[in-house]
Amino acid sequence: MSQRIAFLASEAQVAQAAWDELTARYGNVSPEKADVIVALGGDGFMLQTLHDTPDLPAPVYGMNCGTVGFLMNEYNPDGLVERLIAAEEEVINPLSMTAVDGSGQVHHALAINEVSLLRAGPQAAKLQISVDGRVRLDELVCDGALLCTPAGSTAYNYSAHGPILPIGSDVLALTAMAAFRPRRWRGALLPKNATVRFDVLEADKRPVMADADSRQVPDVVSVEIRSDSCVAHHILFDPGHGLEERLISEQFT
């Protein structure tokens, strides 16, 4: 079976060399005409590719030419068409962020991994947290907080001692970074359909930045986050090496 493949590569030298090799062997079409998109790079480039192609029907198959490569498959130029045919698909819904900055400007962004609020000054941030319109935490004094998807739970969330979430679970993880008050507050597990709102207290004195998969908004005063079921990212993995297996393996290493 022939497949029309669109190869996309990061600017890294190793990824560019892989692009040269693979396009010479398998040809190359535009993403709009492809049956599958092959992203060459690391996890950052994979996220960029997913963000750039949300309206295209072609799923994305990543080949690791970076470092960690949690969302990627092993790089091997041989037998690629057969691997693509045998690949298993995972569907991920991103988070939708609506952030309001100090001037009143509204910013929208999608995040496949997480939305983070991070202190942007020398003093700790003060955040009020509401879930579905109800204030759940009057004041969290911290370096920051994040809300992540299952796919993003092994990224920044895990480094901040948040839980790893099984892929396909209808759960989001709310995790604090260096919580001072309440002392060592570790966060909460929330249903996927929850709407989470952060209000920044003393925003002038304690500035906060919002970050949605490296899309940054400075000086925010409020951030509202929800899972966007209208957007679905389709990612391909080699059999036995999908996100579910990787999430389980990560907890035993």
What is the H/E order? EHEHEHEEEEEEEHEEEEEEEH
Net shape: elongated
CATH classification, class level of the largest domain: Mainly Beta
Q: How many structural units, i.e. domains?
A: 2
**CATH-assigned fold name of the largest domain:** Tumour Suppressor Smad4
Number of helices: 5
Rg calculated over all Cα atoms: 19 Å
- Number of β-strand runs: 17
CATH superfamily of the largest domain: Probable inorganic polyphosphate/atp-NAD kinase, domain 2
CATH architecture of the largest domain: Sandwich
The largest pleated sheet is described as: 6 strands, antiparallel
| Spatial separation of the terminal alpha carbons | 38 Å
Outline the fold blueprint.
Layout (H helix, E strand, L loop, with lengths): L4 E5 L3 H14 L9 E6 L1 H10 L7 E5 L15 H7 L1 E5 L2 E7 L4 E6 L2 E6 L5 E7 L2 E9 L1 E5 L7 H4 L11 E7 L10 E4 L3 E7 L6 E5 L2 E3 L2 E8 L5 E5 L5 H8 L3
Parallel strand pairs: 1-2, 2-3, 3-17
Antiparallel strand pairs: 4-17, 5-6, 5-16, 7-10, 7-14, 8-9, 8-13, 10-11, 11-12, 13-16, 14-15
What structural keywords apply?
17% helix; six-stranded antiparallel sheet; Rossmann fold; single chain; 5 helices; elongated; Tumour Suppressor Smad4; 253 residues; 17 strands; alpha+beta
